[in-house]
User: Fold this.
Amino acid sequence: MQIKDGNVTYMYNSDGYTRCDITYKNRVFTGHAYCLAEDKDFQSEKTGCFIAERKAFIKKLKFMKSELVAALSPLTNFEKTLQSCKKYNPNSFEAKKLRKEIYIKRKEIQEIETAIKEEQDYLTYYIQNKDKFYKR
Assistant:
């Protein structure tokens, strides 16, 4: 069965394999999940789709982070080049604007790193709680 919801596509097979594709900037990030034998009778489709989606979303966040890191590098290099000039004025509008852009990029990178960590932690927590449910 295949379900498409905007930029997210879910594929679920009756054998317990689930795949989620997230499309972002003409790239596809794929997450996979395999249901355990004891999970196949209880919400296996919902569980598999959720786990696969989280894995794909983490890949998307990592890609977004790499884009920001690539955008930050030229800005910091340009700032170093400007600082080496004799006529560099750190109080000029351009210098302040450049420092603000560098600050914003670094802040966005930190926020994405935090989001990646939170997603990974939540996915681990979710899977562990599913295991606890079956051990009861």
In short: The CA atoms of residues 7 and 26 lie 10 Å apart. DSSP finds two helices and four strands in the chain.
